[in-house]
Amino acid sequence: MEQNMLRKKRSLKYTYIDCAIIIGLFVLLAVLENIMMPTHIFFTVVKKGAIYALLAVSMNLLNGFTGLFSLGQAGFMLIGAYTYAIFTIPLEMRESVYMYYDGGIINFTLPVVVAVILAGIMAAAFAFLIGWPVLRLKSDYLAIATLGFAEIIRAIFQWDKLGVITNGANLLRRYPKFTSALVPCAVAALCIAIILLLINSSYGRAFKAIRDDEIAAEAMGINLFRHKQMSFMTSSFFAGIGGALLAMFQTTVQANAFKSAMTYEILLIVVIGGIGSVSGSVLASFLYIAASEWWLRFLDSPMVLDNGFQVPLLRVGFRKVVFSVVIMIIVLFYSRGLMGDKELRTENVVNGFRKSKKKLREWISDRRKKNREVAE
Amino acid sequence: MDFVQANLPYLLAGISVGGQYALIAIGYTMVYGILRLINFAHGDVFMVAGLLMVYLVTAVPLAAAIPLMILFTVLIGFTIERVAYKPLRSAPRMSIMISAIGVSYLIQNLAYYVTGGLAKTYPSIPWVSDTVTILGATTRRVTLITPVLTIILVIALVALIKYTKIGMAMRAVSRDFETSQLMGIKVDSVISITFIIGTGLAAVGSLLFFSSYTAVTPVAGAMPGLKAFVAAVFGGIGSIPGAVLGAFIIGICENIIKGLGWTTFSDAFTFALLIVILVVKPSGLFGEKNTDKV
Amino acid sequence: MSDTILRMDNVTMQFGGVVAVNDLSLQVNRGEIVALIGPNGAGKTTAFNCITGVYEPTNGMISFNGQPMLRNHPAGKMKKFYAGAHADKFTKAYVPQDEEALAAIAAAREAGDELTAANLQAAYDDAAEQRKEQALLLDPHAFSDKVIAPTPDKITKLGIARTFQNIRLFKSQTVFDNVLIAKHMRAKQNIFTATFRLSYKEEKRMREETEALLEEQNLIHLRNELATSLPYGLQRRLEIARALATDPQLLLLDEPAAGMNPQETLELTEFIGQIRKKYNLSIFMIEHHMDLVMEISDRIYVLDFGRLIASGTPDVVQNDQRVIDAYLGVSDDVED
Questions:
Q1: Which residues in chain B are contacts of C15 at CB distance < 8 A?
Q2: Alpha carbon of C2 to those of B40, C5, C6, C51: distances in Å?
Q3: Is B240 part of a structural domain of the chain?
Q4: In a 3-state reduction of DSSP, which class is residue A172?
Q5: Is position B244 within any domain?
Q6: In the structure, what pLDDT confidence band is assigned to residue C2 with cuts at 50, 70 and 90?
Q7: Which residue in the set B83, B270, B275 is minimally distant from A133, CB to CB?
């Protein structure tokens, strides 16, 4: 009992350290923004990485923590992105954006914060409607049905009869964007923190129970449908916010871009990070974006070495080939991903360090003993 | 007569597309029947078959290109199963599905790399690609060949499954994986053969499909693949006649919708149909119902 | 108020053409330990799955605490394929007949005594009406075919908890969390108050209750172990503890002693007796270990091929020829 109290206290201490580290990272980012060129690729990576981190974590909530294999992420992102864009394009710009639809029919704008939250709410509302039919389906049927819904959503948003609202198949643009990388990072961090709180609450435990064993969870009095619906809506809410952030990052939105390939990309990030690990998803997002946007860029352009040797294979598209090979290797040989279902926390790092230290010591004393025996 | 003339092309196109979907759908339905896996990469293998044809005709005469294309496609299908699915046979269902998505991603990126992202023109095959006129409607001959060829292939396949030893093994494995393993059926080779048949039919399907659409892009396989999968679910996954019927229904409906001027929704319709069938009758038209044991 | 806690009336469960449970009627009284035994494949677990709402029975009614909890009658396609008992009830309207009374009326009419016949008829109608009212009191939908099919979670909420034949613990979670999850059902918090820690008081209470329960079950020292890392016997204990955490009135145990050695079985016997007393439970269990069953049960029901073949106290059941036949098989050639 006392031991347990002690443990709790220590755990709390480490949580404070975790928070301090995150705040430290934010300060570092603010400093970097003031000393580095704002157009540096680093900031692109941080911005996009933060947005993808949120998207990956929201997908992980559903796929990793509730065990629902859903492939509808792109659809919810689309709803979020469109909701944000539609309600924030300044009135004087509408004429030029909705040039084929006489400026559209929405003649008011919402404050950015309200629009971002509305983006999440709209996505969650769609999830509520879609959830009725699809959440009763079993694993792979659920995957294909959610994928189907994402495609339907995409078609609806491109429908020219709705063009007065969605601008049909044309771009939406000229809505407010962010310049500082701190904005997406802060929003993503806030959302991820909320998801973390949810996962560690009674409802999060119920979600995990459903993932582990639906029948046992039901026998424990957990209403499967209601809880699946909640997880689905929460995940979609944050996917919608992620979509709104993505819209800001990309500066234009077009329904055609939100294809199932986008969902797959996020799913693969979740897998790389470890299904069921929030920190894994975050880490994997930044790594994935950094690799694809920055570190591996060189793979896409031909390279001639100083001695005139033309490096073979390097040309447009090679980066993604390397990428997909790496992903396949992870899927096949390291299916636990970076983190498995563990979290990257100071507490776990310190404990892991202690354990390995202890192991090392045991190993050394073992060796000494053996040596002595041999000597004798 | 005017009505027929106006709508016949859509109907013909529908039947033809339906036949092409059917050939892809069989691959999905057979693999699902045995491995309980949605082989997301199947549509991409179909696209690769199209690309292979594009590159093969530049090297060898057409008569040799077609069998070679089918052979290579089958080899690819076989390899994918061995490399990406076999190691995960005892893993949770989600991982093998993720592996399938990974393979799909890999194939698309490889195709993008090889083609440089450009749409490749599909070689026109004499006689097959010729235009003909029936009942006053102009169409390509492939439109007429497709349903006939599809039906012939399906009958041959059903006969294979019904009357041969390997067919019996396939049925046994799809009914009960573990037991058939215990009964001495070489499950691995049955699965390989399933993939070989599935990809072989998809290769034939790609020949017909791209002959009528002429361009191959790295993502050209994704949509037909998904639609064929919907067809397989619609017909009752695991059932070959079901998949074929589902494919024809989807092909025809889709083209009628296009004819009505609702092109934006022709893809969405397929998925709407999927969701309706999953909600109303999850086992599809001819599927069997499974209950989980508690 | 009778102290019948669980009552099954004519429950039939049919899968396709297979009748797994056929016309099973039984009852468990408050405070009793009742065992359901029978050879493998007799339909015991199916009966449990009907009670807990995992399966929707094809026919019959299950009441809990005198209230109908679950009811179904063959409908649609099942009307044609129904192969269980009382098939005639569902093909035409069922009118309960009291043959003796009807015969008396007919006899009076035959004898030309119209007055007596009318009186008898009135008395019969009154009795029928009363029976109907009584039935309605017990079950407001007694004369309608209204289906009651709650999901398993609702049944757990009513106060029926269960364990599983093949242990179903939450694999990735600790012993403590496994039990804590059972407290979620009765929590008043919603997803917002839970996420933003507005209901921390309730959370604290849930944790304290869980701790207390683990302490009582002598599992507290294992609180931070993964549930699946426990030895088999302890996993069974944990599953029972988890079921107890839902505050049940009735506990269904599906083969609690499966895979246990005689020593462990003995401990379990004692343990079941203890929890009954401590938590005021009624227990209904499926078990194959006859030592345990005979030792602990107040009453026993025996199933064979889905049908009830015997019931009563352990002594009665033990000496019942049909039970012996069911377990040992009947010799076909008696002459030898």
A1: 291
A2: 59, 8, 11, 20
A3: no
A4: strand
A5: no
A6: low
A7: B275
Give the 3-state secondary structure of residue B184.
coil
Do residues A160 and A169 touch, judged by C-beta distance below 8 A?
A: yes
Whether residues B271 and A63 touch (CB distance < 8 A) is answered with no
> Edge-to-edge, what's the strand order for the sheet holding C59-64?
C18-29, C4-15, C59-64, C67-72
**CA dist., res. B278 & res. C269, Å (int):** 47
pLDDT at B119 over 80: yes
Question: In sequence order, what are the beta bridge partners of C19?
Answer: C14
Number of domains into which chain B is organized: 1
Per-residue pLDDT tens digits for B44-69: 999 999 999 999 999 999 889 999 99
Alpha helices in chain A (DSSP H): 2-35, 41-60, 73-88, 91-97, 112-134, 139-158, 163-166, 182-199, 202-212, 214-219, 224-250, 260-273, 278-290, 318-333, 346-375
Task: Report d(CA A212, CA C66) in Å as an integer.
Answer: 34
- CA distances to A181, C10, C51, C52 from C300, in Å: 71, 18, 17, 20
CB C286 within 8 A of CB C255: yes
Fold of A15-260: ABC transporter involved in vitamin B12 uptake, BtuC (1.10.3470)
Region A249-262 average pLDDT? 91
Q: Any bridge partners for residue C11, and if so which?
A: C24
- B121: helix, strand or coil: strand
- For C167, name the nearest residue in chain B, comparing CA atoms only: B294
Distance CA C335, CA B1 (A): 85
Q: What is the mean pLDDT of chain A?
A: 90
Cβ-based interface (< 8 Å): residues of B facing C: 291, 294
Assigned superfamily of C1-73+251-336: P-loop containing nucleotide triphosphate hydrolases (3.40.50.300)
Indicate whether B202 belongs to any domain: yes
Question: Could you count the other beta carbons within 10 Å of the beta carbon of residue C206?
Answer: 23
| H or E element in which residue B134 lies | strand B131-134
Domain definitions of chain C by residue range: 1-73+251-336, 95-138, 168-247
Look at residue B209 and tell me if it is in a domain: yes
Across the interface, whether the CB atoms of C184 and A203 are under 8 A apart is answered: yes
Nearest to B29 by CA among B168, B273, B228, B173: B228
Find, in chain B, the residue whose alpha carbon is nearest to that of A145.
B275
